[in-house]
Amino acid sequence: TIKRLADGVGSGFFHDSVGVGSILNVKAPSGGFFLDTDQETPVVLIGGGVGITPLLSMLNGIVDEQPARKVWLFFGVRSSADHIMKGHLEQVAREASNVEIRTFYSRPGDRDQTGKDYDFGQRMSLEHLRKELPSNNFEFYLCGGGEMMSEMIGALKTWGVPEKHIHKDA
Questions:
Q1: Can you tell me whether residue 129 is helix, strand or coil?
Q2: 100: alpha, beta or left, given left = phi > 0 and alpha = psi -120 to 50?
Q3: C-alpha span between 142 and 45 (Å, rounded)
Q4: What b/e sequence results for 58-81 when a residue is b if at least 16 CB atoms lie within 10 Å of its CB, and e otherwise?
Q5: Contacts with 26 (C-beta within 8 Å, 6 or more apart), sequence order
Q6: Which of 9, 56, 142, 168 has a beta carbon 3.0–4.6 Å from 46's, enabling a disulfide?
Q7: What angle do CA 33, 149, 41 make, to 5 degrees?
Q8: Higher-confidence residue: 98 or 36?
Q9: DSSP states of 5-70 as a string?
Q10: What dihedral do alpha carbons 41, 46, 50, 55 form, nearest 10°?
Q11: For residue 103, what are the β-bridge partners?
Q12: Please, are residues 43 and 62 in contact by the beta-carbon 8 Å criterion?
């Protein structure tokens, strides 16, 4: 799920030179944006576009290692043309009883269907979270574009979510 950037040396390398069967030397993540797997606190994952990448790792980890831990994923993209990992997310939603997924298309395509491809035909908002979540007593993890991030972080703070429960990566 590496997005090709016009001037991106790293993304260009992955798109042009790495394929199935490539062997890469990697190291463990070393940043501060990670899921605390020692906790059982319910989690809300909020992603926009390719920002789903680290959140998907968190979601998969919870499903595999913490099947009693409740997790909500709110995911926004423009349309089905941008909906990465759609099949995998649908499978997780079907098979994992602790997972709830809500998908937002800000500009659904002519063939995109509400209830099949997406849940809401508009941008994600605090109003949606408040309708779906029983409270604001969650650990929130956000990853996406700048505008979505600033809007959602501001909205969560307005809702009374303590800053220490808002984890973000752009």
A1: helix
A2: beta
A3: 6
A4: bbeebbeebeebbbbbbbbbbbbe
A5: none
A6: 142
A7: 50
A8: 98
A9: PTT-HHHHHHHHH--TT---------SS----TT----EEEEEEGGGHHHHHHHHHHHHHH-TTS-
A10: 0
A11: 75
A12: yes
The residue type found at 6 is A
Two structure tokens written together for 14: 């992955």
Per 3-state DSSP, what percentage of the chain is helix, strand, and coil (rounded to 5)? Answer: 35, 20, 45
**Rounded CA separation 93/45 (Å):** 14
The answer on pLDDT for 65 being more than 70 is yes
Task: pLDDT band for 125, please (50, 70, 90 cuts).
Answer: very high
Question: Structure tokens of 168?
Answer: 């973000």
Per-residue pLDDT at 131 exceeds 70: yes
